[in-house]
Amino acid sequence: MFQLISTIIAVLLVAADQAVKNWAAETLTKGEIAVIEDVLYLKYAENTGVAFSMFSDNRWVLVGVTGLMLIAVLAYFLSGKVSGKLELFSLSLLLSGGVGNIIDRVSLGYVIDYIDVRIINFAIFNLADICICVGAFLLCVAVYLSDKKEKEEKIAKQKELEEIDKDLEIIFGGESNE
């Protein structure tokens, strides 16, 4: 059930990303909007690369790499091997962000960015980028928590086995308590 909910969320995020990018292309090309003066602006930008415009003008390489990553994430998302809700949700964020940006890259040749944080020297980004970053962070948290739980279960099983060993020693004439 949660996989269905995560899928719906991913589809809604892709739709929202594309709607905002269309709005940005229509509105922000006429001029930027100060949301918080000297801090946050909405500004139209075309990015032919990835984060901070790295690998600019490598459209089809970026489409290929992104496509392969999306296939891998989707395969894992659908595999039934996802360990929990947090991991499933993080994968849906990664999928929605990747799909949102690959739509732009294939159809336009660039990704539309519009969030310009000026309080620090940072790249202009979009909703899809936020989904990718938050999804990647949450996936790391999910993997960490899953590993931690697995280790705790292993320790608990080991302690249980040690207790059984002690009981068996007592029953079958190992160490005595005298």
Question: Could you walk me through the main structural features you see in this protein, from its secondary elements to its overall organization?
Answer:
With 178 residues, this protein is mainly alpha-helical. It has helices at 2-27, 59-78, 85-108, 127-171; strands at residues 33-36, 40-47, 111-117. The chain has one domain (2-147). It is built from four helices and three strands. A three-stranded antiparallel sheet has the order 1-2-3. Helix 2 (59-78) packs antiparallel against helix 3. It is elongated and about 90 Å long.
Share of β-strand residues: 5-15%
Order of strands side by side in the largest beta sheet? 1-2-3
Q: How many helices does DSSP assign? A: 4
* Radius of gyration over all CA atoms, rounded: 24 Å
The total tally of domains equals 1
Q: Enumerate the spans where pLDDT stays under 50 for 5 or more consecutive residues.
A: none
Could you tell me the mean pLDDT?
88
What is the first-to-last residue Cα distance?
Answer: 58 Å
Shape: elongated
Helix content: 55-70%
Largest sheet: 3 strands, antiparallel
Oligomeric state of the chains? single chain
**Could you state the order of secondary-structure elements as H and E?**
HEEHHEH
Q: Which structural category do the helix and sheet elements fall into?
A: mainly alpha
Keywords for this entry:
3 strands, mainly alpha, 4 helices, three-stranded antiparallel β-sheet
